[in-house]
Amino acid sequence: PDEPETEQKQQDGNLLMRLPPELRDKVYFYLFSSTRFMYGQRFVLDQKYTPLQFYTRVAYLGSEILRPPRHGLALLRSCRQVHLEIGSAWLEHVIFCFESPIAMLRRLDRVPLETRSLIRHVRIASDALQVPLSSPAEKKVIDGCFKLLLQMNLYTLTVFGPAIPCWSHEDLDLFIKYGRGWKELRYITYTSAFVDIISSNRGKTITLPSEPQPAAWQRDLENRDGPNSGASVTIYKSADSKNPLSVMCSTMRAELSYPPTPTTGVDHLNTDGISQSLDLKDDKRGILIVVKRGKNADWQ
């Protein structure tokens, strides 16, 4: 049979193609927005250990290699019309998840720049970003990651921070003061102690911050984007002490503020009007810091 005639018969029997184009676009959006392409090696941790002990081999039970779903792009192959309608738009909706910076480098460095610039959402586990930069190889990985980000136009960059709180604090300083390639940063940590401490020497010297957060980060961001640009830094804390990742759900978190005191600069934690004593011990309630670049900011 003639190819155009066969293709038309396939489309006539396709329920998706019977929908109006506007509804088909919504189907494409919801499908690809819920699709995750995962890469790298994920370590299985023994939950009886504290987060700080996750950096010792005794806490690891094993590991698994993550691979993208086999049929993640099956819709593109369903028929020629669907393929033409979607084109490369799926790159703007799917989330690319990497278990380490080196996994991101290995995967995205091989992707042509033209294609890479279409990606809009990336998640990365940042533990490897926090290791002491004691070797040229480690520095090369970090430099490569930031160069990749400079070449991207992300709407959201989600970073899962390490278990050592002071390292997260340093990373956020770098992202807020110098980060580019993203419009919105979502930084997540597995311990609430992160916001209460800061390190001046990669974990060796721990002191209370000299200024309350997020006010200091807000000032740094406004210095980049302008005071009236709408740039913002907001800190949220999970309401569930047993599930730190629940902080990603808007109904399971509360916004935090840190009012200064004459002695320490930071002494209490306000959560919906409730004052709590500062505690540097491990708190398994997760923290989410949302950094939004200002209007007309040069974030690309």
TrEMBL record:
Name the record gives this protein: DUF7730 domain-containing protein
Domain of life: Eukaryota
InterPro entries xrefs: DUF7730
Annotated organism of origin: Hypocrea atroviridis (strain ATCC 20476 / IMI 206040) (Trichoderma atroviride)
Domain DUF7730: 9-133
